[in-house]
Amino acid sequence: DELMAAKEIYDYVGAVTPDVDVTLALEAQGEISEESLENCVIHLGDDGSEERISLSTTPVFFVTFGFNVLSEADSGTLLDLYHTSACGMALSFKWTAYDGHTYVVRFDTNLTRAGNAMSRLRSLGIRLKILGRIDDP
Asked: Which residues in the chain come in under a pLDDT of 70?
């Protein structure tokens, strides 16, 4: 049984409805990184002074991960999701995450695939912006 953090992204985002009812459920491989930020702007004065303006009280989350080795079918599923259902970075969809929750996300980068004569594909550096969550049943 994996030990989970006392707080997860799920605890900070509200429920939203995705643009398309499609779920990315491929298991991420390798290192996964989370980035979170508060939406604020910092203006620096010539004298080193700072003015900080909070634009929102809602945190923003990004998750970056890769698929080190994908079957041809899974690679095709990912490519089809990117170009058809998600329209690249335009539309949101559901993602079953490593923490057991389902989030509403959109791609935040171009999709890059690499492989050995395209027989064993991988996609590295996929970045998703988390827009919200699907409430647990």
From this structure: 1-5, 117-120
Q: Which two tokens stand for residue 137?
A: 């049943």
CA 121 to mean position of chain CA atoms: 20
Are 34 and 13 within 8 A, CB to CB?
A: no
In this prediction the pTM is 0.82
Say how many C-beta atoms besides its own lie within 10 A of residue 62's C-beta: 17
Beta bridge partners of 35: 62
* pLDDT score for 52: 92
Q: Are 56 and 69 in contact (CB under 8 A)?
A: no
Burial of 79 (0-12, 13-18, 19+ CB in 10 A): middle
Place of tokens 């050995």: 116
Burial class of 130 by CB neighbour count within 10 A (0 to 12, 13 to 18, 19+): buried
How far is it, in rounded angstroms, from Cα 124 to Cα 69?
10
133, 63 Cβ separation under 8 angstroms? no
